[in-house]
Amino acid sequence: MAGEITIRPVKPGDRAAWEPLWQGYLTFYKSTLASDITDATWRRFFDPLERLGAFVAERDGQLIGIAHYLLHRSTWAPLCYCYLEDLFVEPSVRGSGAGRNLIAAVESAAREAGASRLYWMTHETNETAQKLYNQVAERPGFVQYRKKF
User: Fold this and answer.
1) How many other C-beta atoms are found inside a 10 Å radius of the C-beta of residue 92?
2) Which domains does the chain have, with CATH numbers?
3) By C-alpha distance, which of 20, 102, 9, 89 is closest to 53?
4) CA separation for the pair 121, 130 (Å, rounded)
5) Cross-strand bridge partners of residue 70
6) With CB atoms 3.0 to 4.6 Å apart as the test, which of 7, 34, 86, 120 could cross-link to 68 if both were Cys?
């Protein structure tokens, strides 16, 4: 029987175990990033001037999930918002509660930071994730538009 899932902030020594999960997330969304972008992201998790945070899900000494979030100001509120930018759980352990617990950890961090909202996006075809998301949050119906530069 597998051990209990622990959610904790990412630590500098987690890089080797974090990176395959990060790459799994990028692969899931059919994306690639240059290594300098991944390196910059990793550094930002530990820079006290950045408002970028990261949690990992760990079971039996192995990282099985990641969540990255960004606290930012809003023109619509006097308090900050929290954007859950990346959430990924190793496919073999999906349904274990790791994703739900990672979202809860980000929510707790957002509340502690004084945020008034936690939000995230997923692709319309990611029906597995939407089953969880529909249980833990409301779906406001907004459509995203994007222009790349």
Assistant:
1) 8
2) 5-136 (3.40.630.30)
3) 9
4) 10
5) 52, 83
6) 86
Question: pLDDT at position 53, please?
Answer: 97
Q: Which amino acid is at 88?
A: F
User: The pTM is what?
Assistant: 0.91
Closest by Cα among 8, 128, 18 to 57: 8
Q: Which of 70, 36, 34, 33 is nearest to 50 (CA)?
A: 70
Residue showing tokens 């500098």: 12
Structure tokens at 108: 């707790």
Rounded average pLDDT per 10-residue block, the chain, 149 residues: 88 98 95 96 96 97 97 93 96 93 98 95 88 90 81
Cβ–Cβ contacts within 10 Å for residue 96, how many?
A: 17
Say how far apart CA 41 and CA 52 lie, in whole Å. 9
Distance, CA of 122 to CA of 104 (rounded, Å)? 17
Q: Is the CB of residue 62 less than 8 Å from the CB of residue 24? A: no
Supply angle C-alpha 31, 65, 21, rounded to 5.
Answer: 35
Contact of 34 with 43, CB cutoff 8 Å: no
